[in-house]
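Summary for the steering committee. The consortium agreed at its last meeting that each partner would contribute one worked example illustrating the joint modelling workflow. Our contribution is presented below. We chose a case with several input lines so that the handling of multiple components could be demonstrated. No manual editing was applied between input and output; the record is shown as generated.
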Amino acid sequence: VEVSVLIPAAGEGQRLGLGPKAFLKVGGKTLLEWTLSAFQEAAEVLVALPPGVEPPRGLRAVFLEGGPTRQASVARLLQAASLPLVLVHDVARPFVSRALVERVLSATRAQGAAVPVLPLPDTLIRPEGEAYGEVVPREALRQVQTPQGFFTALLREAHAYAEKRALSATDDAQLVRALGYPVALVEGERAAFKITYPEDLLLAEALARVWSA
Ligand code: C5P
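What follows is the complete predicted structure of the assembly.
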């Protein structure tokens, strides 16, 4: 298909403390290998690695050097993208189903920008100092996942706009929105959670045993 998959994998994985997540193994495969297998059908896959890290051999992807932030890494990947649609996906989310990729892609084709979201199961508050504070109605909130899909030209424009205004963002959809364009929502998947904390690895090991995208 006509999609460049952009994988920012240039983080140092500091919260986990086990080095760059791309090379972390679960179920005998690295997170990068799991992630690439979700995008086997993509015409182009570009991966940003931390500076100085030797690209792994034998994987079907083009490797380049990431930047100091996720946003900078995506900006570099975007420069190298050659196809009209992009999917931006964090390497820290190795379990992506084909169904999820298809949902994001079809909404992207129709609407120019689309992201997967999920409702939140917990009660949510704004703490008042150290004390329990105002409850934020959880029905009103969603957590945002990747892959996030965009017309390549639109995401390029959004990154250029962010650079000019010195906006910094934790995902790409917020830059598109800042530019003034709507971003469609599709249903996310629990399995596409972001491996962030040590316990997450236990869940990832368990999923690796049963996973086939
Ligand atoms: O740190 P955070 O969890 O937000 O990172 C999300 C993704 O962005 C990870 O896949 C990480 O490797 C990537 N990243 C990057 N370049 C950076 C920092 C993070 O590609 N400088």
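Residues 8-11, 21, 48, 66-70, 73, 90-92, 170 surround cytidine-5'-monophosphate (CB under 6 Å). The chain has a mean pLDDT of 96.
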